Each structure stands twice: as structure tokens, then as C-alpha cells.
Amino acid sequence: MSEIKIYIADDHQLLIDGLVSALKSYSNIKIIDVANDGKKVLNDIFLNKPDVLLLDLNMPQIDGLQVIEKVKANDKHIKLLVLSNYNAPHIIKEVQQKGADGYLLKNGSISELTKAIQTVYEGGSFFESVSTKKESSYFMDYFMKEYLLTKREHDILLLMAKGRSSFEIADNLFISVATVNTHRRNILKKLGLKRTSEVMNLAASKGWLKD
């Protein structure tokens, strides 16, 4: 059986350590390098020439979607298997369009992962069948990281999206109205918006309030 060279990229070192530990028992799999951010991946990968890149999407500096684009534009022989927490049809469709060879949820088993690795290595594709139930939660999490929103800003943003007043938000979160107004100004500034109605329109378009 041919040896499969694997490069692992994830922003959580604990997950990387777990994958390395689990995969080292497979004689046909060799971990050649790991990375915690997208920039390191792109600096290394064309020199290391792995057969399969295991890639998280929420990577610092350069995100996973950008990594997929750049890798596929420069070396189509490297297979890309996305490992994600998100059961999100929209993002699966997007990674397919950008050229990824597979998509696997992180709550799967090691045997399923090795099957996916073997499948994409041999030129096939491996995409999880998913539901739409948690698609909006993916968008919200990704959006928070993209715009550097804090957890408190996230909570206030969702209440703003529901049309709640500053007094209602303050009462709901047990904070002062002045604190709410400060957060509202910061949220609008980060999003490049001017009024709450724009936040409501944005939330509707992203489906944040479906759940």
C-alpha cells in the first residue's frame, strides 16, 4: 500500500496533537508537517508537497477558503480534505466550488477520517451529507471572527437584530443602558453600518435568527 503524506492545519494545537497521535498507528500514513495558521500552510506546503492537506476553515492570518484557492491554483495534485465543526451546506458548497476534494465533520471517527483520506488520495471525493439545521450558527461564528466581535457584542448584536431597544437589551443582559449604547456604537463601527435597521436587514439575509 502506498504511503500517504499528510499535512495537518488547524488553529487548535490540541486537535492537531490528537490527530497525530491517532494517525501514527496507520503504517500507510505519514505526517510530514503541521500548522496553526493559514500563512504557515502556504509558506510550507509547496516545498513539503503532501499528498493530502487536512484543513480547518477558521484559520488565523489566512483563512481556510483562501488556502484552498491558492493551493488549487498552484498545485492541483495536492488533495484537500476540510475538517470542520460546522454542519453547513452553504460552506460545503463553497469549498467544493473552490476545489476542495472532501469535507468531514470533526465529530466523526478516525476510521471515517482514514477512509476519507484514502478516498481523496485515490482521486475520489468525500463530502459529508449534512442538514441545514446549524447553517446560521456557522455564519454567526464566522462573522464574529471576521469582524472581531466580542461575546458581549455578539449577544447585543442578536438583540439589535430583533429590533430590541437599548432599555430592553440592558434589562435582558443585566447591564446599564450606557454600556449597551457604547456596545451598539462599537458594533455599528466594526460592521461599517449606520443604523439598527441595517443590522436587522443583515441578520435577515444571513439567517441568524432562524433557530
Automatic annotation (TrEMBL):
InterPro entries (UniProt xref): CheY-like_superfamily, NreC/VraR/RcsB-like_REC, Sig_transdc_resp-reg_C-effctor, Sig_transdc_resp-reg_receiver, Tscrpt_reg_LuxR_C, WalR-like
The keyword Transmembrane helix is assigned to this record: no
Superkingdom, natural source: Bacteria
Residues covered by the HTH luxR-type domain: 142-207
Coiled-coil annotated spans: none
Keyword set, alphabetical order: DNA-binding, Phosphoprotein
A Pfam family annotated for this UniProt entry: Response_reg
SMART domains listed in its UniProt record: HTH_LUXR, REC
Boundaries of every Response regulatory domain copy: 5-121
Name recorded for this polypeptide: Response regulator
Organism: Pedobacter ureilyticus
Lineage of source species: Bacteria, Pseudomonadati, Bacteroidota, Sphingobacteriia, Sphingobacteriales
